[in-house]
């Protein structure tokens, strides 16, 4: 038995929040709603959800800014932006950053439910991989800046001595950083570590 | 010294030329964008459609293709296909494209989409960035 | 029954008739003095019978009849010729409070021994006129709403048309500014030429807006003499965008020379917009790639015929009789008022709107307008 799917709504317009929740409910989808990006970010334990409906234009922290924050954290769930009529430049920026899809106001019920279900279905198939990525990113974020420097040079294939010279620190210090990094990244070998870093920070970026 | 990334077009290390291809069927718009770009030091190959596109993009100094999404003789997808052979970035402009249409073009490989009318900075900064990316 | 009884019965019957009548019944003598004034007349004019018996009936008339009534009566007495007897007509009456109202009056003569009498039977038309005015206003609102609906359907296309000249204007203006900022002595020739082109593109954009605004104007009918070819050309401009993007051919065959027609330009445009839009929609719904729409103007005797013909799927036989019905539509999101409104407009111009089946299939609507319309 699958649990009810859960959608997170972030929109400053109360009427939109209400109507979205009703429409989703009518299709058997549970939801929670936040009235601003800041309120969402302030929630330390948000429910686990399968999809986010995010208004692109909001006062304060707007949709795109919130999305950038979430993208940095590599949140795994798909984000569907709610856009107005003239929002093409914003939408284009969002899609380049990785937004999953768009809904333009006023939306047709069929379109809303269709896109939400498509997003949830897509998430199901990529969830495992994305959660791993999110986990890896969190681990990388938990390293200190210096540890990250060592890590990146390790991934480029430099030996300890070369890293020490490049960074202007002693080889002994490099070894300590290296040990910490391997531990924090839960890497059991250097090749594994290199794979992780190239996944998170591909060279073409 | 320009590094070559495997698979890219060969980059002329003396490539100080700033060349773009502009595909725009509306003549006044084509002229206006031409004037704007030339004023910023770009050399512009102007086309009204896709007819001579293949001939023109063979020039290795071309940095990008700027194309209207509504073309009389081919689809934007065809433009993307032909330019992808040379790994040329394609920037689309549009005067009658829906949000979904614009989003789809990006998904299909367009580098960007500029909804008309757009401020000059959006186009010029984008082209500068593409040229810098090329010179790296 | 005695003769006396019979006379009394007649009198009673007559009184009963007067009292019961819904219309006002007023009897005057040859001098114009009021002899009988029934209950309905009391209600209609605001006088009690007792108060107006013996008064001149012209009391109940506003000018000019007030001044002329005595003369009418004398003339009739002298000539036996009356303009008013036997025919009903619409006139104005005047109430006790001075207000006037439209009424329908028919007058008959009662020949009797003691002197002829005239009987006037009056129907108050106020309510009817109010209702007619309301209907007229509702019709105008409906016509206006129809134009707004069409406008909504055309707007996306028209708005997109504006984006092109705006883009050119923005780019020229930026280029001009860049040139001026960069050079100590900007080449005035270049700047001039840029400004000229900005001007051209601005006019181009303004024209698009103009077309829109004309279509959207509300208000009552405003007829003037127009060149029908020009009206059609203006209408077709509204479709430039739609036609381009749908690859449909739109051909116009104007009439060589025709006197200006006395029509409401916006209403005629409204009919044409409805017809062309219908053709475009039919062609696009059918997914046709070779769509063709033809507009022809012909003159036959005293009428002008404007036909809009398309090579779309046409109208299925079972729907043909229902085409002009209100709310009949086969379009997925249609309201179905367009054609019935167009038919009404055509009728209001003294013309007609008819459907016919072209020999090669497709669909044809023909609007006919009289060359001379007295209305």
Could you please describe the fold and organization of this structure?
The complex is a heterotrimer of chains A (205), B (136) and C (375). Chain A is α/β, with parallel strands linked by helices. In chain A, 57% of the residues lie in helices and 12% in strands. Chain A has nine helices and five strands. Chain A has helices spanning 14-26, 37-42, 63-72, 88-97, 109-142, 145-155, 160-167, 171-184, 190-200; strands at residues 6-10, 30-34, 51-55, 79-83, 101-104. In chain A, helix 1 (14-26) links the parallel strand 1 and strand 2. Chain A starts with 5 loop residues before the first strand and ends in a 5-residue tail after the last helix. With 136 residues, chain B is an alpha/beta fold. Chain B has five helices and five strands, in the order βαβαβαβαβα. Mean pLDDT of chain B is 86; it is low at 1-14. By secondary structure, chain C is of the alpha+beta class. Chain C folds into three domains: 3-124, PAS domain (Beta-Lactamase, 2-Layer Sandwich); 143-218, Helix Hairpins, CATH 1.10.287; 221-375, Histidine kinase-like ATPase, C-terminal domain (Heat Shock Protein 90, 2-Layer Sandwich), CATH 3.30.565.10. In chain C, helix 5 (126-182) packs antiparallel against helix 6 and helix 5 (126-182) packs across helix 9 (265-285). The longest helix of chain C is centred in the middle third of the chain and has 57 residues, at 126-182. The radius of gyration of chain C is 33 Å and the shape is elongated. The relative contact order of chain C is 0.07. The mean pLDDT of chain C is 86. The B-C interface holds B 26, 28-29, 31-33, 35-36, 39-40, 70, 93, 95-96, 116-120 and C 156-157, 160-161, 163-172, 174-175, 178-179, 182, 194, 197, 200-201, 204, 241, 245.
């Amino acid at each position: 038995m699958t649990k009810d799917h859960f959608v997170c709504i972030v929109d400053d317009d109360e009427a939109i929040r209400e109507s979205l929740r009703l429409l989703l409910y009518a299709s058997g989808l549970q939801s929670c709603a936040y009235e601003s990006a800041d309120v969402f970010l302030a929630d330390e334990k948000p429910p686990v959800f399968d999809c986010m409906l995010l208004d692109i234009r909001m006062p304060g922290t707007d949709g795109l800014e919130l999305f950038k924050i979430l993208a940095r954290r590599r949140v795994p769930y798909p984000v569907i932006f709610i856009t107005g009529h003239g929002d093409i430049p914003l939408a284009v920026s969002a899609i380049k950053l990785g937004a999953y899809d768009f809904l333009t106001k006023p939306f047709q019920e069929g379109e809303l439910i269709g896109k939400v279900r498509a997003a949830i279905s897509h998430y199901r198939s990529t969830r495992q991989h994305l959660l791993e990525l999110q986990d890896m990113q969190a681990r990388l974020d938990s390293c200190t800046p210096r540890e990250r420097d060592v890590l990146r040079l390790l991934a480029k294939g430099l030996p300890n001595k070369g890293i020490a010279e490049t960074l202007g620190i002693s080889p002994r210090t490099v070894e300590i950083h290296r040990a910490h990094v391997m531990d924090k990244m839960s890497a059991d070998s250097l090749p594994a570590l290199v794979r992780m870093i190239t996944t998170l920070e591909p060279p073409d970026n | 010294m320009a590094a070559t990334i495997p698979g890219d077009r060969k980059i002329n290390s003396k490539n100080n030329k700033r060349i773009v291809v502009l595909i725009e069927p509306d003549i006044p718009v084509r002229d206006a964008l031409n004037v704007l770009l030339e004023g910023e030091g770009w050399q512009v190959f102007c086309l009204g459609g896709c007819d001579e596109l293949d001939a023109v993009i063979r020039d290795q100094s071309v940095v990008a293709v700027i194309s209207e999404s509504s073309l009389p003789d081919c689809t934007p997808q065809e433009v993307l296909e032909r330019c992808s052979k040379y790994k040329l970035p394609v920037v689309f402009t549009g005067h009658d494209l829906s949000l979904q249409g614009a989003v789809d073009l990006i998904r299909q490989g367009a580098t960007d989409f500029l909804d008309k009318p757009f401020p000059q900075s959006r186009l010029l900064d984008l082209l500068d960035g593409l040229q810098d990316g090329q010179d790296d | 029954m005695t003769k006396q009884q019979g006379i009394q019965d007649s009198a009673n019957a007559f009184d009963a008739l007067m009292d019961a009548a819904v219309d006002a019944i007023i009897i005057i003598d040859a001098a114009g003095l009021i002899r009988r004034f029934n209950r309905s007349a009391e209600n209609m004019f605001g006088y009690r019978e007792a108060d107006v018996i013996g008064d001149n009936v012209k009391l109940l008339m506003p000018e000019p009849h007030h001044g002329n009534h005595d003369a009418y009566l004398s003339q009739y007495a002298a000539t036996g010729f009356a303009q008013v007897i036997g025919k009903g007509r619409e006139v104005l009456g005047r109430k006790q409070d001075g207000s006037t109202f439209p009424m329908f009056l028919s007058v008959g003569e009662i020949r009797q021994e003691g002197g002829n009498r005239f009987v006037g039977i009056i129907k108050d038309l106020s309510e009817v006129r109010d209702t007619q005015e309301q209907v007229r206003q509702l019709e105008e609102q409906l016509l206006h709403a129809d134009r707004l609906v069409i406008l909504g359907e055309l707007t996306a296309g028209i708005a997109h048309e504006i984006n092109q000249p705006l883009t050119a204007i923005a780019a020229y203006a930026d280029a001009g500014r860049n040139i001026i900022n960069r050079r100590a002595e900007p080449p005035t020739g270049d700047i001039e030429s840029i400004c000229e082109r900005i001007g051209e593109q601005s006019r181009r954009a303004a024209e698009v807006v103009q077309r829109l605004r004309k279509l959207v104007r509300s208000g009552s009918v405003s007829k003037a003499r127009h060149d029908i070819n020009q009206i059609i050309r203006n209408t077709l401009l509204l479709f430039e965008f739609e036609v381009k993007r749908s690859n449909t051919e739109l051909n116009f065959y104007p009439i060589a020379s025709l006197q200006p027609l006395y029509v409401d330009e916006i209403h005629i445009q409204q009919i044409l917009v409805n017809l062309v839009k219908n053709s475009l929609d039919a062609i696009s719904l059918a997914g046709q790639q070779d769509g063709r729409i033809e507009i022809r103007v012909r003159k036959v005797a005293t009428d002008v015929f404007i036909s809009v013909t398309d090579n779309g799927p046409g109208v299925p036989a079972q729907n043909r009789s229902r085409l002009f019905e209100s709310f009949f539509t086969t379009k997925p999101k249609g309201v179905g008022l367009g054609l019935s409104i167009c038919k009404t407009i055509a009728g209001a111009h003294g013309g007609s709107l008819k459907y016919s089946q072209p020999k090669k299939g497709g669909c044809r609507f023909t609007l006919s307008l009289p060359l001379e319309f007295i209305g």
